[in-house]
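Per your request, structure below.
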């Protein structure tokens, strides 16, 4: 089962991410897939808004992991630049810290991902239109999708 949403502009993408709010739980893992510029980081920004994170969320491409303090802590990763060397990061440690983990370019580290998670695929249709597909693995993530769609 997957859920398909059409985002017509930046605001649609932010609102979709914000709407996951009511169902947030500790150790939630959200994996983001899609080309450069498809909206992955913007989606993380929307998510951070809902967590009342004041700090401006920017792409962690050069840091690989950025940590933000909010209602729940947010660990924002972009593994584009480390790919298969990700074992060095001790990534799995972040899956049990009680915060929320969001991973851009998660396809590069497929083998390291937890079985239960939410996959989010971004596809650019034209100009500002994006197709965003949510694919939950596990009951908790199914519930999250049911609540936002
Ligand atoms: P990524 O992290 O996937 O590389 P970003 O979120 O950094 O992408 O950038 C997405 C870009 O696309 C931003 O400049 C944003 O303003 C633009 N954009 C236009 N329309 C949308 C939309 N519907 N959803 C998300 N981003 C959009
Ligand atoms: Mg990005």
């Amino acid at each position: 089962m997957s859920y398909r949403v059409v985002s017509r502009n930046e605001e649609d993408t932010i609102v979709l991410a914000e709407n996951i709010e009511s169902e947030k739980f500790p150790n939630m893992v959200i994996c983001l897939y899609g080309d450069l510029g498809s909206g992955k980081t913007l989606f993380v920004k929307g998510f951070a808004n809902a967590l009342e994170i004041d700090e401006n969320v920017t792409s962690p491409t050069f840091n690989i992991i950025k940590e933000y303090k909010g209602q729940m802590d947010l660990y924002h990763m972009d593994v584009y630049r480390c790919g298969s060397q990700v074992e060095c990061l001790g990534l799995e440690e972040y899956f049990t810290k009680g915060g929320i983990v969001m991973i851009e370019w998660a396809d590069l580290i497929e083998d390291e991902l937890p079985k239960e998670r939410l996959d989010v695929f971004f596809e650019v249709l034209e100009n500002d239109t994006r197709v965003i597909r949510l694919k939950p693995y596990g009951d908790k993530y199914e519930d999250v999708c049911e609540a936002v769609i």
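The mean pLDDT is 92.

Regards,
D.
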